[in-house]
């Protein structure tokens, strides 16, 4: 009969695993699996992770090493334990790693919330941080804090929950909990992060608005940070293409930043999710955003940097992606263009793959690409519209150059461009420059 080896191992990943070893390694029988399940039935009530009451046993998975069978238990977090995770997230000196360690040492989120000074020190809380932590804990009511979350239409996920994003759960630096508005689905496992400067050039705007719809149409969820510039363009382009998108904040859900994107955030909630690791009321302090970037990269199979200067925060996201063993892509730019200096450096150093179109990304991610055939001109186009469409391409052209090439009167060029834009045949990409709409 099989025997249990070692103690129950709690990895902090929302699963509890122990091993059963067949004393006859060569035996590949169902007997050892049945023995493992019987042993599991006896041990389930004593699992350390008591904050996961609704456990279920997955089918045993047998390795080739000495007949070892690993059993894994996983379950949903209840509101009773959720409130303690929320409370822990509000304590000073308790970050994601320390929270994980504290819950592991205490045995449950509830016990971690009531941890003694000795247990807090064992989890890594320094002596000088202990008194402020205890004073802060005494002023927090976990029930009220959870009510504050639910009242805002949000919910809390920890790594215990099956809805917690699978890709993010694999990251070594994942957040201990996520505050979520909207929906996270299994389809989001196929996702791409798109990041870049807050002040994109016409070139950068054209790149992101041209490639994002195609990627969204191919089934990729677009992840970004809701910042002005490239982030905003990526979210909007995904939504306009009928795709899903996820926005990651560097503040609490009730302190949406930037405020200009409130309406966009609501559209994202309806067609994806707005998420953050920061508790309600957290302000968008500058030091929150580098940490936020690891969630952006952690949610995605890869990160695309569209435009980034030498010190752009988008480069921080790309570095996190490398650390998380994810792909990094970048659009090249002119060597004299400061907006592309960061992208060019990533490509030059071999830290990012050069991208010229959506097929480069899809191929690298082992995803199929089905180009969508679009009509060259709208039905019933007027003679003036046909002339203007003939001189436009995916490269931005200024309105004066359009007038020069078509020899049409300036008022007619302006009115025709307006009508073509209303019919979604062309796009205005800024500073009176126009391109074909994909």
Defining key terms:
438 residues; alpha/beta; Rossmann fold; 4 domains; nine-stranded mixed beta sheet; disordered N terminus
Question: How would you describe the shape?
Answer: elongated
Overall helicity: 40-55%
Average pLDDT, rounded to a whole number, is 83
- The counted number of beta strands is 17
Instruction: Give the terminus-to-terminus CA distance.
Output: 65 Å
Rounded radius of gyration (Å): 26 Å
What portion of the residues fall into strands of 2 or more residues?
A: 15-25%
Q: Class of the largest domain in CATH?
A: Alpha Beta
Structural class: alpha/beta
CATH topology of the largest domain: Rossmann fold
- Contiguous runs where pLDDT drops below 50 for at least 5 residues: 1-34, 36-75
CATH architecture of the largest domain: 3-Layer(aba) Sandwich
- Figure out the total of helices: 18
Count of discrete domains: 4
Strand order of the largest sheet: 6-7-11-10-9-8-12-13-14
The biggest sheet amounts to: 9 strands, mixed
Description:
The strands form three sheets. The chain has a nine-stranded mixed beta sheet, with helices on both faces. Strands 1, 2, 3, 4 and 5 form a five-stranded antiparallel beta sheet that branches. 40% of the residues lie in helices and 18% in strands. The radius of gyration is 26 Å and the shape is elongated. It has helices at 30-43, 79-89, 96-106, 109-113, 117-122, 127-138, 142-151, 166-170, 202-217, 230-240, 262-270, 288-298, 313-323, 341-348, 358-364, 383-391, 399-406, 410-422, and strands spanning 3-10, 15-21, 54-57, 61-62, 68-76, 155-158, 177-182, 191-195, 221-224, 245-248, 272-276, 302-305, 327-330, 353-354, 397-398, 426-430, 433-436. It is an alpha/beta fold. α9 (202-217) links the parallel β8 (191-195) and β9 (221-224). α9 (202-217) runs parallel beside α10. It has four domains: 3-75; 77-151; 182-364, 3-Layer(aba) Sandwich (Rossmann fold); 383-436, Arc Repressor Mutant, subunit A (Orthogonal Bundle), CATH 1.10.10. It has 18 helices and 17 strands.
């Amino acid at each position: 009969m099989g025997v249990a080896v070692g103690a129950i191992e709690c990895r902090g990943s929302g699963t509890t695993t122990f091993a059963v070893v067949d004393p006859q390694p060569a035996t590949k029988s169902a007997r050892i699996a049945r023995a493992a399940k019987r042993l599991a039935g006896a041990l389930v009530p004593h699992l350390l992770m008591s904050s996961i009451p609704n456990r279920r046993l997955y089918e045993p998975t047998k390795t080739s090493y000495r007949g070892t069978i690993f059993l894994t238990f996983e379950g949903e977090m209840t509101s009773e334990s959720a409130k303690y995770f929320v409370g822990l997230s509000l304590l000073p000196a308790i970050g994601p790693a320390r929270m994980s360690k504290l819950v592991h040492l205490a045995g449950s989120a509830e016990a971690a919330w009531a941890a003694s000074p000795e247990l807090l020190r064992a989890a890594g809380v320094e002596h000088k941080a202990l008194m402020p932590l205890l004073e802060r804990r005494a002023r927090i009511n976990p029930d009220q804090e959870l009510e504050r979350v639910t009242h805002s239409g949000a919910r809390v996920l920890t790594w215990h929950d099956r809805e917690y994003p699978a890709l993010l759960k694999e990251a070594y630096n994942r957040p201990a909990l996520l505050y979520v508005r909207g929906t996270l689905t299994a389809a989001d496992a196929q996702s791409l992060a798109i990041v870049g400067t807050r002040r994109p050039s016409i070139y950068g705007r054209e790149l992101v608005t041209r490639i994002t719809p195609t990627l969204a149409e191919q089934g990729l969820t677009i992840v970004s940070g809701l910042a002005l510039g490239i982030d905003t363009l990526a979210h909007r382009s995904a939504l306009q293409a009928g795709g899903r998108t996820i926005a990651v904040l560097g503040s609490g859900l009730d302190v949406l930043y930037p405020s200009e994107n409130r309406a966009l955030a609501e559209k994202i909630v309806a067609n994806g999710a707005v998420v953050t690791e920061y508790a309600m009321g957290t302000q968008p302090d500058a030091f929150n955003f580098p940490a936020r970037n690891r969630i952006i990269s952690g949610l995605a199979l890869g990160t695309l940097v569209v435009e980034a200067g030498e010190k752009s925060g988008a480069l921080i996201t790309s570095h996190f992606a490398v650390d998380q063993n994810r792909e990094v892509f970048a659009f090249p730019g002119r060597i004299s263009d400061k907006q592309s200096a960061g992208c060019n450096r990533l490509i030059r150093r071999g830290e990012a793959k050069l991208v010229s179109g959506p097929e480069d990304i899809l191929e690298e991610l082992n995803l199929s690409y089905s180009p969508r055939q679009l009509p060259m001109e709208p039905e019933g186009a007027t003679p003036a519209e046909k002339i203007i469409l003939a001189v436009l391409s995916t490269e931005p052209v200024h309105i004066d150059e359009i007038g020069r090439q078509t020899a049409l009167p300036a008022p007619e060029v302006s009115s025709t461009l307006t009508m073509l834009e209303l019919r979604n045949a062309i796009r205005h990409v800024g500073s009176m420059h126009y391109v074909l709409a994909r």
